[in-house]
Design goal:
single chain; mainly beta; Cathepsin D, subunit A, domain 1; 5-stranded mixed beta sheet; 4-stranded mixed beta sheet; 11 strands
């Protein structure tokens, strides 16, 4: 299987919210466009320290993480980051992996944007075509209904 890369734009979620409310101008939102490796084995978005600093992200904690070579490391966990891929977007915390230049787009943001890896084409594709489809299950137990 080949390695798949895709262009994504990452935005500071707090800045984006303030711009949406008219508190700051859209052009002042801290953002960066990057080439990310699509990594379905990574749980979430993984960024490097430089990207974290460019976006001005707050650190909310630390998380012990296991790398592909089975080594362990401690990663910073950021406040949610807004991830944009074409006309789709989501927000999720990012892990800041020390000593790397790579950005990884993991399973949680892929799932939330309804994206799958198309190995034949070597690219990302909408799991349900061009429309984002959110999969939900209705509760069957009357006690669980509102």
């Amino acid at each position: 299987m080949s390695v798949i890369y895709t262009d994504i734009t990452l935005k500071n979620t707090g800045d984006a919210a303030m711009a949406m409310r008219g508190i700051i101008k859209e052009q002042t939102v801290r953002q960066v466009s990057v080439m990310a490796m699509v990594d379905t084995g990574a749980g979430t978005l993984v960024i490097n320290e430089a990207t974290c600093q460019k976006l001005g992200l707050a650190i909310e904690g630390l998380r012990r993480s296991s790398l592909a070579d089975s080594s362990k490391t401690i990663c910073k966990v950021t406040e949610p980051v807004r991830v944009h891929w074409k006309d789709r977007k989501t927000a999720c915390p990012a892990l800041v992996l020390p000593n790397t230049d790579e950005i990884l787009l993991g399973a949680i943001p892929l799932e939330d944007m309804d994206l799958i890896v198309n190995p034949a084409a070597g690219e990302l594709a909408g799991a349900h075509g061009d429309e984002v489809l959110c999969m939900i299950k209705q509760a069957t137990d009357k006690a669980l209904r509102w």
